[in-house]
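If your schedule permits, I should be very grateful for your opinion on a structural question. I would ask you to consider whether the tokens describe a fold that such a sequence might reasonably adopt. Thank you for your consideration; the sequence and its tokens are set out here.
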Amino acid sequence: TCLDAPWYDDESLLPDRCFLPAKSYYTSSTVVPDPDRAFASRFDWIDAHFGTATIPDGHGYTETNAATGRGNYVVHGVVPGVPSALVVLDLVDTSGQWGTISGDHLEWFDLALAEAEAADEMIIVASHYTSAGIDDDEERADFLEVMRAHPNVVLHVAGHVHGNDITPVAADGGDPVENGYWEIETSGIVDWPQQL
């Protein structure tokens, strides 16, 4: 794969199916068709994290994730020397392009934050979508209410639009931003060029 290829200064030496920008990230190139490239379902994606040569097995995903296709999980101790938790939240709506969270899903999220908070852990939330990427107004309000209800949440990192933005989110009651959390939207992705 492209990720296995060494970094070359001469693009002509790359395998045919790869394009890695040797000199500039701001030039475009044609993505070479690859008959082995295929759609991966949610189940395929999660299953691919099990039985790898690296640890931990599942890379955060559990057997429950593999069975349900839902990518929510929690990893503790993500910041060395600091009681911390990474809460990974699957907001992807398979029927559309916007994020979604409601019902049992929202309850799981609230409980995951409460458990990390009870352990006095600093909480980082990671998801594909920022809060603005949750299209339904009521769901977005519910998501923000849960986030703001847990003062140990310090960061929400997300992507989706492949842009870079940092937004302070104030806690309820108009408290200063220092008592809220930061929402960071990043364009960080593995493959180049971005196929939008």
